[in-house]
Amino acid sequence: MKSGMLSGKTALVTGSTSGIGLGMARALAREGANIVFNGFGDAQQIDQLHTDLARECGVQTAYHNADMSKPSEIDAMMRFATDKFGGVDVLVNNAGIQHVANIEDFPAEKWDAIIAINLTSAFHTTRLALPSMKHKNWGRIINLASVHGLVGSAQKSAYVAAKHGLVGFTKVTALESAGTGVTCNAICPGWVLTPLVQQQVDARAAKDGIGNEEAKKALLGEKQPSGEFVTPEELGALAVFLCSAAGNQVRGVAWNMDGGWAAQ
């Protein structure tokens, strides 16, 4: 077993087969946490991913393919984590999807899917993780919200509603566990160059007839004053801080890491 701040603990990270979730899983594994991966993708590549991380960090890893829009599958994933590792000590609610359209053109089924995966799934994982965390008197719940949990943007009604809801849910969870060793906080990134954001960059490049690098600069220039993408590694380091003793009294916070986006 690897020694480290989280040695002997288990972290479950939803949507962790790529992007921010993978960055979170890697950061927590480096601190000694066993990792339960979740997400979609090629089965062989996912198997390789968690096997490599286990070897690299000297921890145990497992994978569950729960569809985060389905409560029964979330329940099965949480039971899997308990059977495999004895419970979840660090819960990172990261799974998310996006759709962009004006409200009057927004497909109702897309709204339902975004609310289910970006918001409701965090309720289900949290309600199932809390009893064990409270019993142990230690736990960390980290909700990956977004700068869109703090401010709005046109054409992102479902995403903004879900992320604002996730920030509110974070505060209530923190208050309900305030007298215990369990903390709950939200991390609110600005633009991170994840596969989801790369799709938006590609769409912009095609629409405006410009190169990919130019499209990235245009995207950042509109919202993110630093002119630089936030990285999954930076977000992972913040998650590690929230899991440390220094984070014991950080409770119910929506911590934006957004290159100055929300400061405007």
From TrEMBL:
It comes from the Bacteria. Its EC number is 1.1.1.30. InterPro entries: 3-OHbutyrate_DH, NAD(P)-bd_dom_sf, Sc_DH/Rdtase_CS, SDR, SDR_fam. The keyword Oxidoreductase applies. SUPFAM superfamilies: NAD(P)-binding Rossmann-fold domains. Keywords: Oxidoreductase. The keyword Oxidoreductase applies. Coiled coil: none annotated. One of its GO terms (molecular function) is 3-hydroxybutyrate dehydrogenase activity. Belongs to the short-chain dehydrogenases/reductases (SDR) family. PANTHER family: 3-OXOACYL-(ACYL-CARRIER-PROTEIN) REDUCTASE (PTHR42879), 3-OXOACYL-[ACYL-CARRIER-PROTEIN] REDUCTASE FABG (PTHR42879:SF2). This is 3-hydroxybutyrate dehydrogenase. It comes from Massilia genomosp. 1.
